[in-house]
Design brief:
Blueprint: E1 3-7, E2 11-12, E3 18-25, E4 34-39, E5 46-51, E6 57-59, E7 67-72, E8 77-82, E9 91-99, E10 102-105, E11 109-113
Parallel strand pairs: 2-11
Antiparallel strand pairs: 1-3, 3-8, 4-5, 4-9, 5-6, 7-8, 9-10, 9-11
Length: 115
């Protein structure tokens, strides 16, 4: 059974930084593509960043240069380092992966950027 558990969300001031973590189980982590998505109130869930098995990455235009996705295969964990945070980054952040053609999501972690 696939489990994704996010952590690290918090209230932070504009310009601040946070690091989100997602611990995965039930998948062959080193062979899995991993992604971070976010959903703000009243908006659709959107891709923030993705990292492939070969450590290839891609980012939403809105976070390029500010966010960095990384993975530690020894810990079955994917990270999202978020710098220069803006109020528009406020959302619930979800970890995502796929297995056997199915999408799996964590429970989400709240990030609030406000002064």
């Amino acid at each position: 059974q696939v489990h994704l558990v996010e952590s690290g969300g918090a209230l932070v001031q504009p310009g601040g930084s946070l690091r989100l973590s997602c611990a995965a189980s039930g998948i062959w982590f080193s062979l899995s593509d991993m992604g971070w998505f976010r959903q703000a109130p009243g908006k659709q869930r959107e891709l923030v960043a993705r990292i492939g098995r070969a450590y290839n990455t891609n980012y939403a235009d809105s976070v390029k240069g500010r966010f960095t996705i990384s993975r530690d295969n020894a810990k079955n964990t994917v990270y999202l380092q978020m710098n220069s945070l803006k109020p528009d980054d406020t959302a619930v952040y979800y970890c995502n992966t796929q297995k056997n053609g199915n999408d799996y999501w964590g429970q989400g972690t709240q990030v609030t950027v406000s002064s």
